[in-house]
Design goal:
About 30% of the residues lie in helices and about 40% in strands. The protein is of the alpha+beta class. It has a single domain, classed as OB fold (Dihydrolipoamide Acetyltransferase, E2P) (Beta Barrel). The chain has a five-stranded mixed beta barrel.
Length: about 160
């Protein structure tokens, strides 16, 4: 009886070890931040504008390219939205950051998109974080209604 039980335990461990190794290899090209998310069903970021029509807020999973990242600690990034536009992405509850050298990398992110009014003070803060000159920061004199994204999980390729 003990031999049968031992055999079943060993067989169960052997059966589990194969798929786990494959999952690790499949994710070797990706780095995860925040909540664990998958790449499946991610919508290209430029399509978000059409999806937001009639909505002030939308939960969605997006894919895109990082154009810029906070150079102080990676606490925000800007994602290419096409036509020379970018969308600022922050991270839920300030719980995680992305590497400061993330510009140019492909990203998949899940979270909430919102149309919001960004204050002059916040715009200046983001410009400072991005390493803009004092003149460029001082030139920011008006708030801006913009599409922003709060990511709960991020995958970098």
């Amino acid at each position: 009886m003990k031999k049968i039980l031992l055999f079943l335990v060993v067989a169960a461990f052997a059966a589990c070890s194969g798929p786990a190794k494959e999952a690790q290899e499949a994710s070797a090209d990706y780095t995860y931040y925040g909540d664990t998310i998958t790449a499946e069903e991610a919508v290209p970021a430029p399509q978000l504008y059409a999806m937001m029509e009639g909505n002030e807020q939308l939960s969605v999973k997006l894919s895109g390219t990082i154009e810029e990242c906070c150079q102080k600690k990676g606490c925000w990034m800007k994602v290419d939205m096409g036509d020379g536009k970018t969308m600022r992405v922050s991270f839920k509850d300030y719980a995680f950051f992305v590497p400061m050298n993330s510009a140019g990398k492909e990203v998949i992110m899940e979270g909430v998109a919102t149309m919001e009014e960004t204050s002059v003070e916040s715009l200046r803060h983001f410009a400072e974080d991005a390493g803009k000159s004092k003149e460029e920061i001082a030139a920011i004199t008006a708030s801006k209604k913009e599409l922003v994204f709060e990511a709960s999980g991020v995958i970098l390729k």
